[in-house]
Amino acid sequence: MTGRLPRRLVDALRPGAEGHADRVVPPSGYTARLTTFTAAAMAFLAVFALALSLAAGRLADRWSGALAQTSTIRISAPADQMETQTRAVLDLLQTTPGVASARLIEEDEQRALLEPWFGPDVPVGELPLPRLIEIVETPDGYDPQGLRMRLSAEAPGAVLDDHTRWRRPLVTAAQRLRALGLLSVGLIGGATAAMITLAAHAALAANAQVIEVLRLVGARDAYIARAFVRRFTRRAALGAMAGTVAGLAGIAALPDTTDAGAFLTQLGFEGLHWLWPLTVPPLAGAVAYGATQAAARRVLRELT
Amino acid sequence: MIALKNVAHSYGHGGGELLTDITLDLAPGSFHFLTGPSGAGKTTLLKLCYGELKPSAGEIQLFGRNVREMTRDDIAGVRRRVGVVHQDCRFLDHLSVAENIALPLDVAERPPAPGDLSELIGWVGLSARARALPPELSGGERQRAALARAVILGPEMVLADEPTGNVDWEMSLKLLRLLVELNRMGTAVLIATHDLNLIRAAKAQVSARVLRIRDRTLRLAGAEL
Predict the structure, then answer these.
(1) What's the ipTM?
(2) Based on the domain organization, do A95 and A239 belong to the same domain?
(3) Last residue of a domain, one of A124, A156, A188
């Protein structure tokens, strides 16, 4: 039964596939335009919700993946102990399981990091800045508690920052944003189904006399339902197509990804993700097909 | 073909019976008139005969099947074997006369044989009006179009409810001639009418049984005609 659905859906969309089954229903320009418009608006919103969800997903992956593999040790010590403690930390890290590599962040790099705040001429050497050591972890990672205990013994001025404190809420937020995006797509689909059910119900009720004539000449319920299903499926699919094109155009018109990390400029599709919005029109057609079938079955039962 | 046995029918909850103890057998090729005063239940009896109504008592067999056990789709199958002509005709007003006449073919997903449709439209004398819309037709033209639609699938029986109710005497005779011709080709015919002149005119052309609804039940009439 379910295997036949795509075939029926294609039949419903194919012009002239059902003789003049769809012509037996009088044309209704006003409701037709409203259905098409609503489907277009819903598809437009669905494309944006999809883009939001995919972008949030990428962000969550990047934050949970890339940042999870790095951490920093900050050393604040009196000037005469700085070198000793730095050497001690680097030696300690070489023998720490789970640490792939560790390197001291040089003055030039520190200057580059501070440049946005203090300008290009900042005298890094004269400022009481802490030393920074960047750690790259192995895939298995290290034991942060164990490392902290060893650091406090070997280099009292060293503080381990494994990014966990600020990374976890960011990753959680991005994951929830992705889930909310997907929930929005689902809600848009549900709202579309509800709207089409209402429109189909109204159209069927308004055409009670047409249904009476069709039954008089021997029409089965499937024939009568098909006339309405075909009409609403086509309207929804065409409207969704227009809405999807408009949504994609809107996404494509967003600024380029010039600022690394700027979430809004990354709100879009990347690579194969551009194919996802193309599923919106057929899905809208499928939703309209199912909703109209259900409405038709109910109304035809009531009109017995 | 269509058999009613001790059938009763009442409308609504607690309403009295409009028809009671009706027994009727409509055999292939038969010709019946159903008469009686307005409100006697002629239309109700016709509706029972094509499955639009179910009896409140008794048994109705439509082509060998008990109507109570039939689904909506089964009833649709009966409608393809029984052509129905209503007094008010009931067309799809946005389709042309030809499309309305061909509607049963489309519903049954049967393509019309080349020439059959135009031949049928010519048989009922509507060739010049084939492209017109139903609201543009006169009462007689509507009745003839309804008759053409009722017979396009080659039904085994035609049920006509006051087919001459809205037309003049000359048109009544034309319609009667078409129905008699249909009966001669083997189709059973049941005409509900209160027009006794029409019945007399028919009896001169065809052997017809006349049934009268009186006191909510069916009686064979004849002597008074």
Answers:
(1) 0.89
(2) no
(3) A156
